[in-house]
Amino acid sequence: MGLSQVAVLASAQTELRPAWRDAQHIDLISSVVTNVFKGTGLTLDDVDFVIDSGSDVLDGRSISNCGFLGALGAHHKEEARVEEDGLWGALYGVNKIRSGASQIGLIVAYSKPSESDIDLYWASMVEPFYQRPVGFGQKAALGIQAQRYLAAHGIKDDALAAIVAKRWADAAANSKASIGEVPDSAAVLAGAEAAWPLTELMISRPLDGAVAVLIGSGDVARRTGRPPVFITGMGTSMETHALAERTENKLDSVANAARMALGKAGWDSAAAADVIETSGSSVIGELLTFEGLGLAAEGKGADVASSDKINRSGGALPADPIMATGLVRLAEAAKQLSAPVKAGAAAPSKAIVHGTGGVAMQTNCVFTLEV
Amino acid sequence: MFYAPDTAPIDLPTFKSTISLPYTLTPGRAAGVFLAEMPNRRIVGARFADGTVIAPAQDFSPRDGEEPTELVQAPETGELTGFTRVNGVVLGLVRLDGCRNSFVHRILADLDQVKVGQRVAVQWAAGDEGTSILAIEGFVPAADAAVGEVKPLVGAAEPLGVINYAMALHYDHAYGPYYGRMFDELKENGVVMGVRGSNADEALLPPREIDDITHKRTGTWKACADTGTIRACSLINVEVYGQTRQVPYAYAEIVLDGASTKMIHVIEIDDLETAKQQIKPGARVRAVWTTGERRGAVSDIERFEVIEG
């Protein structure tokens, strides 16, 4: 086991809601930081460093973590910000512990997209001379990605709608996401057009919320309450910014990140995992992720999408707290490994966790977990 | 969260805020020439050492970072390689003839008229779009358009130096239970309320649920005085972007009586020499409240003034 000495000790999440109108960022953050220690026997005093993920643009202030340090429990501690999904924050934290410099790290990610104009957030990420003036952004990029994929593989809208409906039902049953009415396939198809051929529900839904994950060295992990969930492999890779220059109908960066993670873990294939939690920015993004992970052949992602192993928490489609989504996946996967029966499996022992960021999933990160 | 958030309505009022930042963007040589050529209705591409061409021109290859060897004039025809529709506007990836890459632009056709692989031709904007890429209004289906050729760029325009640009981002910030009460008390009662620290009688301002230093739950609410002591200050006599009042004025960190934390506010100045004598750490100050209607904002206190004697 490559990285056997770092484990997920515990996690805490707020409810993930369309809008936390009655709470500030600091309220959400301090809630998860307070709650993550419960049952571990550890306290904030035991934490060697804090790493947080969020977006200054979404938050509406620069270096926004500086205003959140108290809520993060980072007063007079080593603190660092990762302006990327919290799964990269965890990657940083694991390496700090692996280096021997620290033993216990607190990884926090949060999001309040309800406070800003999400289309402007994405527009701020694209190129200002050629792309922004014509109205290019996340929706357009996901729409083009989907149009090409569907055209290449002859997949029908109703197959996609069934996948989306399953994700919402699973999120209602198994996640911290606030789910009102669970849409059926017909409702998914009948939804407003987000970016043809994608309807609103075929694109991940931005939600407000926070998540904290406590990680620690193997020695600490063996002394805390539950069987340790070890992080045994990690990988990350990024596509070129120019959407049209990326390989058509593939997420090479998912494949690269998976190759790194699996190599470290010593697994032959991601199919060895009993639990798979992914962060697709759209339903097509999810299928491309399965294919990149090697769970399905090119164009065959839909064939595995309904597997009981995959996105038992509902994944990112019904609940995408941007910048926290991947860390939520880590928390959900670790929970399923440490409470296998509750998660509906006999004895899962391995998990794959995927996080993403950027326009049309430009950057991707993969973890392997083992108990 | 220790309080019961589920009991609160979801449609609470928010604090509306806009961040609007001015920029002077530097397009560099390739994009600078491309944009400078827009009024001339020429599409500028870039050729690399291997002979391949991309359009619009870039100073680097998006594939491998290589620098182009020359700028060229790209043709006005090409083919569609992907498309979508957002907010009723069809956007497509267009690969111009002789180019290796596609780029995003508007497709001026209904969705049912477009398909991947079809021929398209540029449509120039009727109006004056200046040096924007929107001088190209978009691309129209052109089934019979002849295949265009990449040509040398003869008499290239000088690249644009900098481009004035502005971006405004709009926010609806939630107050949360603690700021919410603080601003309500300011508005309704003209009182500055904080909460006691986790192990102290002095109040934290602004109030919060968790003590920043101990990460323990904070104490009970406490009204602070509207008098206090300067702990740090700066006399501002230079105009900078984003100022909300005329210089000179003082910017002071003030500990209100009854509080333990500093709040930032302003003190007006008549003349700098007197201000240097009066406004300094340790000086006592009092709040000057607005004479108008209180709005539930820090600006309900217009400014602070030094208590003389």
Automatic annotation (TrEMBL), chain A:
Source organism, top-level taxon: Bacteria
Species this chain originates from: Novosphingobium piscinae
Family matches, as Gene3D superfamilies: 3.40.47.10
Name of the protein: 3-ketoacyl-CoA thiolase
Domain Thiolase C-terminal residue range list: 235-363
Gene Ontology MF terms: acetyl-CoA C-acyltransferase activity
Classification via SUPFAM superfamilies: Thiolase-like
From TrEMBL, chain B:
Superkingdom: Bacteria
Alphabetized InterPro entries for the sequence: ChsH2_C, NA-bd_OB-fold, Thioester_dehydratase-like
Domain ChsH2 C-terminal OB-fold span(s) in chain numbering: 221-289
Gene3D superfamilies attached to this UniProt entry: 6.10.30.10
PANTHER family: BLR3430 PROTEIN (PTHR34075)
UniProt protein name: OB-fold domain-containing protein
Organism (species): Novosphingobium piscinae
